[in-house]
Amino acid sequence: MFRIPRNALVFVGDGRKALFLRNDGDALSPHLKTEKVFEDINPMTHEQGRDRPGRVIESSQPGRKSAVEQTDWHDIQERQFAQTVAAAMERMVRTSKAKALVVVAPPRTLADLRNAFHPEVKTCIVAEINKDLTNHPVGEIEKHLISDGST
């Protein structure tokens, strides 16, 4: 059984939404309270960039062209959002003097956060859970974390 220490911060997020929660209960019966919510407006890639992919003319073989992959603006925005919430988490850890942090995110967001977290934040992490619980109510998040909080 996974235990969330009292006053631990719990980050639940994906590339578009992030919940900053705090355990007001104890380790055996957590009671998560919402501290902050971040939501990013991130339209689909085709709404963000209308340019056609570029073309490259290869000098080694005259007359040959190859396409360049279209920029995924949606993906870029999700990665920037991870950096934004990582900076917010750093401020929150410093102001609250939290000793424990649980990070819950899908795999790619978790990787982006690992790269973006400040070393001070990394030292507080007691568990990383590879799951997308962002759109669940807080009560369901508690149940998921208690029932299968694997690191």
Briefly note the CATH topology name: Nucleotidyltransferase, domain 5
The geometry reads as: elongated
Oligomer: single chain
Query: What's the CATH C level?
Result: Alpha Beta
Name the CATH superfamily assignment. Answer: eRF1 domain 2
Count of individual domains? 1
Poorly predicted parts: none
**What is the spatial order of strands in the main beta sheet?**
3-2-1-6-7
**Derived structural class:** alpha/beta
Radius of gyration: 20 Å
| Total beta strands | 7
Order of SSEs: EEEHEEHEHHEH
Mean pLDDT: 82
Largest β sheet strand count, sense and barrel closure: 5 strands, mixed
Amino- and carboxy-terminal Cα gap = 11 Å
Helical content band: 25-40%
In CATH, the architecture is: 2-Layer Sandwich
Structure in words:
- The chain is an alpha/beta fold.
- It has one domain (9-41, 74-148): Nucleotidyltransferase, domain 5 (2-Layer Sandwich), CATH 3.30.420.60.
- It contains 5 helices and 7 strands, in the order E-E-E-H-E-E-H-E-H-H-E-H.
- It has helices at 45-48, 73-96, 107-116, 119-122, 138-148, and strands at residues 9-13, 17-23, 32-39, 55-57, 65-67, 101-105, 125-130.
- A 5-stranded mixed sheet has the order 3-2-1-6-7, sandwiched between helices.
- The longest helix is centred in the middle third of the chain and has 24 residues, at 73-96.
- The chain is elongated, with a radius of gyration of 20 Å.
- The termini are close together.
- The mean pLDDT is 82.
